[in-house]
């Protein structure tokens, strides 16, 4: 092989390697938004749907079928709060809007800010569980001893009955976990 042919081959290999590296960097940046989109569309991992007022111009049909919704509340050990649902379960008509109330109380002698994440189980129910209003991912600052009531407005989409993997679900669990906003500060 001549020096010229070897140089061309090396240049082509280097260009291909650079293109591959650029594509991997691009995929690395796109991975999180693409994964979030995938979860929202499929309900993967119990990801709920977000209420879209434009798409909701047509009110979902309320079915005579019901489902039990269990409400679960957890608190990080680093957050000195008491957090619980006002009612641990509710039976809701599929398609009907409903509301649950969660209560949080700061048991520390100073103000603390927390934020909640959520999950829905079983995973197959996530894409049919639509939250209209929620306190999740919103920072909540509570003064010492302060207690607040936080509503969650939701409905279970009637399309759940058309899904062979989800139509027989009898109970859905909506679970929240509160964490301190600034993990660097020690809550006491």
UniProtKB/TrEMBL annotation:
<dbReference type="GO" id="GO:0008535">
    <property type="term" value="P:respiratory chain complex IV assembly"/>
</dbReference>
<dbReference type="InterPro" id="IPR007533">
    <property type="entry name" value="Cyt_c_oxidase_assmbl_CtaG"/>
</dbReference>
<feature type="topological domain" description="Cytoplasmic">
    <location>
        <begin position="1"/>
        <end position="8"/>
    </location>
</feature>
<comment type="similarity">
    <text>Belongs to the COX11/CtaG family.</text>
</comment>
<keyword id="KW-0472">Membrane</keyword>
<keyword id="KW-0997">Cell inner membrane</keyword>
<dbReference type="GO" id="GO:0005886">
    <property type="term" value="C:plasma membrane"/>
</dbReference>
<dbReference type="InterPro" id="IPR023471">
    <property type="entry name" value="CtaG/Cox11_dom_sf"/>
</dbReference>
<keyword id="KW-0735">Signal-anchor</keyword>
<dbReference type="Pfam" id="PF04442">
    <property type="entry name" value="CtaG_Cox11"/>
</dbReference>
<feature type="topological domain" description="Periplasmic">
    <location>
        <begin position="32"/>
        <end position="188"/>
    </location>
</feature>
<keyword id="KW-0186">Copper</keyword>
<protein>
    <recommendedName>
        <fullName>Cytochrome c oxidase assembly protein CtaG</fullName>
    </recommendedName>
</protein>
<keyword id="KW-1003">Cell membrane</keyword>
<dbReference type="GO" id="GO:0005507">
    <property type="term" value="F:copper ion binding"/>
</dbReference>
<keyword id="KW-0812">Transmembrane</keyword>
<keyword id="KW-1133">Transmembrane helix</keyword>
<comment type="function">
    <text>Exerts its effect at some terminal stage of cytochrome c oxidase synthesis, probably by being involved in the insertion of the copper B into subunit I.</text>
</comment>
């Amino acid at each position: 092989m001549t020096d010229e042919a070897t140089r061309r081959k090396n240049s082509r290999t280097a260009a291909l390697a650079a293109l591959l590296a650029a594509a991997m960097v691009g995929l690395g940046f796109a991975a999180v938004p693409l994964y979030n989109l995938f979860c929202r569309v499929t309900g993967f991992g119990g990801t709920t749907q977000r209420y879209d007022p434009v798409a909701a111009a047509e009110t979902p049909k309320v079915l005579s079928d019901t489902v039990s919704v269990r409400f679960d509340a957890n608190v990080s050990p680093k957050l000195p709060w008491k957090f619980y649902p006002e009612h641990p379960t509710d039976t809701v008509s599929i398609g009907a809007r409903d509301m649950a109330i969660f209560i949080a109380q700061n048991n520390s002698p100073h103000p603390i800010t927390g934020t909640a994440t959520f999950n829905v189980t079983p995973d197959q129910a996530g894409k049919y569980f639509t939250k209209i209003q929620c306190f999740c991912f919103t920072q909540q600052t509570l003064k010492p001893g302060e207690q607040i009531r936080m509503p969650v407005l939701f409905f279970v989409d009637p399309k759940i009955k058309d899904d062979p993997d989800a139509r027989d679900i009898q109970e859905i669990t909506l679970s929240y976990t509160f964490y301190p906003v600034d993990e660097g500060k020690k809550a006491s």
